Amino acid sequence: MIIPWLYFLKEDEQALIESFTRRRVVNGPGSFFTKPFERVRRRTGITLGPTAYLRVKDALTGEVHNEVGPQLYFLKASEDVAEKLAAIPLKQNQYLRLLDQRTGVIRVERGENSVYLKPTEEVIQDVQDGVNIDEHTAVVVRDVEAGQLELITAPQVFMPASHQDIAQVFKRIRLEDHETIVIKDKTGKYLFKKGSDAERSFFLEPYSELVKFRWSTGLHKDQRTLQITQIDARPKFMWYEFEARTQDNVELVLGITFFWQITDVEAMIKTTDDTPGDICSHARSAIIQSVSRVTLETFLAEFNPVVREAVLEADDTFYTERGVKLHAVEVRSISCKDADTQRVLQEIIRETTNRLNRLQKQASENEVKVKQLSGEIESEEMRQKLLEIQRQNVLAAAQMNGEAEAVKVKAFFEGLGDGVPPAERVALFNTLRKQDMLADLSRGTAQLYFTPTDVDLSIETRQSTARPKTAP
Fold first, then answer.
1. pLDDT band at 466 (very low <50, low <70, confident <90, very high)
2. Cβ distance 90 to 125 under 8 Å?
3. 143 vs 106, 138, 282, 290, CA distance in Å?
4. Cα(456)–Cα(109) distance, integer angstroms
5. In which band, very low, low, confident or very high, does the pLDDT at 454 lie, cut at 50, 70 and 90?
6. Which helix (H) or strand (E) holds 259?
7. Span 359-374, pLDDT tens digits
8. Which one-letter DSSP state was computed for residue 86?
9. 254 strand-pairing partners
């Protein structure tokens, strides 16, 4: 442009003026004239909020610097915006790790704060929450300068320094009375912690680790997928299934139940790394040998004694050497591997069951009959006692009635006096008794017929002494 030109700029405007040899800027508000051969480009200033900042690069020197808000920023003639960023806010319990790519220095920013990255810094770890250390939580920290680990248990909200890294966050281990754990220390030595010890709640020391056991599991104990760190010393059940063959060459599938207990953890860890697997394998070998010496019929009749004798009654130190005690072993199921043999076996079992049911039913019926006979015997005995009592009562009543009648007769005869002959006394007594009987019959509903032959009645007329008549 050859002819000068007047420009007016607002408060947020800037003019970038370029000539053949240099560049310059004019910031508003204001006005200016251009010189010949200058080109003008109008641009707006950059408004930065309270949490925004610019990363500005100088095209001449290559230096990058930050411009932090809040402000209205006008670029210089040699400057360009590299990027516009926002500050990273940190809460009170948060921290942020930054790396200076120019010097390699790591810087840690802690909250409450807003973090503005320097031009040569980058975030090497996202915003992290501090670790709340209390009586149940501790932190193992590695000093990256010395390479040592340190266990920090002092209550605080822990945020690592620039030379520290959090290696691990530990929870306090708390053991119950029946629990035991095995710890491998930094020298490789095993330490045993029990719930019955005085120190039953603790943190793992640096360079120590819990020993994790991988035991066999499943019905056939063919998968070592059971992982435990705390050993339970209480008795427990375990199921196992395997094949065995009898003396008469019948192949069986046996289901066994073990009731077992770990009694010595130190002996166990010295001799085995798979306690359930060892128990089942050793018991299986002993049971197979015992079953092979008996026929199917004998085994079905005495399967539990055969198995107990093979496992429990044998003079075997295998289990005690591994710190294990077997309390009981029982046969849970028996089946034939061959389908045809299994059907025959099911028929035998069904017939045996029916026979036992019939025997049980007959025993129940016999018991009912015995109870019934016992009741009848007891009833007859009571009836006999009743008849005896009734007989005694009748005899006593008859005796009492006889004594009363005797007293009555005696009184009657004595009342007649000596003037009446004995034969007349008896006849008079009989006549009175017949009158009493007739009176009793007359008061009832019975009808009585007498014939002359049945009743020997006689009417006697006695002449009474005639009294002398008196003259009127």
1. very low
2. no
3. 13, 16, 50, 63
4. 151
5. low
6. strand 251-262
7. 888 888 888 888 888 8
8. E
9. 242, 334
CB under 8 Å to 18, separation ≥6 — which residues? 38, 39, 41
Please state which of the four CATH numbers 3.90.180.10, 2.60.40.10, 3.30.479.30, 3.30.1450.10 is assigned to the domain occupying 213-334.
Answer: 3.30.479.30
Q: How many angstroms separate the CA atoms of 6 and 196, rounded?
A: 95
Cα–chain center distance at 393: 72
Structure tokens at 192: 């045993």
- H or E segment and range at residue 433: helix 422-443
pLDDT tens-digit map of 100-144: 999 999 999 998 999 999 999 999 988 999 999 999 999 999 998
Q: Where are the domains of the chain?
A: 180-210, 213-334, 346-442
To which residue do tokens 């959090």 refer? 166
Query: For residue 293, which amino acid is it?
Result: R
Nearest-angstrom CA–CA distance, 390 and 9 = 145
Q: Which two tokens stand for residue 198?
A: 């005085």
Task: Name residue, tokens 């036992």.
Answer: 356
* Rounded mean pLDDT, 401-419: 76
